Amino acid sequence: SHATGNVTVSDNIESVGGLVGLNNTGLFVTPSALISNSYATGDVTGGRSSIGGLVGQNAETSRIVDSYATGNVKANNSTQNIGGLVGWNNAGTISGSHASGTVTASGVSVGGLVGNNGGTAASITNSYATGDVNGGPVSQGVGGLAGSNSGTISGSHATGNVRGEIAGGLVGGNAGLITDSFSSGNVFGSYAAGGLVGQMDGGSILDSRASGNVTGGADYDFTGGLVGRMQGGDIDNSHATGSVIHGNDTTGRLIGNNTGSGTITNSTYRDAAAEAAAQAAAEAAARAAAAARA
After folding, report:
1. What whole-number distance in Å separates Cα of residue 291 and Cα of residue 283?
2. Among 226, 238, 229, which Cα is nearest to 199's?
């Protein structure tokens, strides 16, 4: 199935999608609702919560498989759950799917693919987002792939640039599991900014990486190449290579501030751009010295 028209609704409407507003069979009902090999290309504008380029809310074991959305999603007066593909993945599953539109919204949980990947049963697998994500000045939980995650994200990635109050290249706020995933977009967060995750409130990051540059607000000490603010959880075998700028401080770091009981193992930070610049400077100096001796 597919849809190509634009969708525009008033600001008090919930569960708005380019193809389907609510994908839901009902709890304990089998087989679960399924959207497969489907797409939407129109822009989605307006709505209060659960707003997505393809589906507004994917609920209660419902599935989205091998589907995509290309339209822009804009909801400047919304309160929560705005995504390029799905607004709220509410205990549903998304696999083999992607979104490429720009997402612009205020409120909580704004993501390039999914606004809120919510609940332990919620999962995003082998999916990606390429559009930029622009949160408002008080947008908490803004991510290149998911605004917030309390479920599972695996084998997925985001490449768009991200701006918000709590912003991450892949996930804005994480309390779930992220594994074998990456982000490459640049990140700006006025409160907390991380190349992969803006703020970690528990959960785990495993075998994942971030390569985008990260810029944080000067008033807070929560800017890191991988995670901006860590308040619990664990990180293992994960890495960051982007430049980190915190106010006037350009000292790179993996974690902006570990304020809780979080544990970090087998994980590294290096500024790949700074290393390349230093190498180029050294080579230029060597060439100049050789020329002087000739």
Report:
1. 12
2. 229
SS3 assignment, position 290: helix
The torsion defined by the Cα of 47, 48, 52 and 56, in degrees rounded to 10, comes to -100
Q: What's the rounded mean pLDDT across residues 173-190?
A: 97
Residue 200 and residue 262: Cα distance in Å, rounded? 9
Q: Could you identify the residue written with the tokens 């999608």?
A: 17
Residues 104, 123 contacting (CB under 8 angstroms): no
Place of tokens 């779930």: 176
Phi-psi region of 155 (alpha: psi -120 to 50; beta: other; left: phi over 0): left
Greatest pairwise CA separation for the chain in angstroms:
82
Q: Give the Å distances, CA to CA, from 215 to 42, 73, 87, 111, 172.
A: 32, 25, 26, 18, 14
User: Of 48, 52, 56, 55, whose CA–CA distance to 79 is shortest?
Assistant: 48
Q: What residue type is 69 in one-letter code?
A: A
The residues near 7 (Cβ < 8 Å, ≥ 6 apart) are 16, 17, 18, 42, 43, 44, 45
Question: For residue range 251-289, what is the model confidence (pLDDT) as tens digits?
Answer: 668 999 998 788 999 999 999 888 888 889 988 888 888
Tokens at 162, concatenated: 């991200």
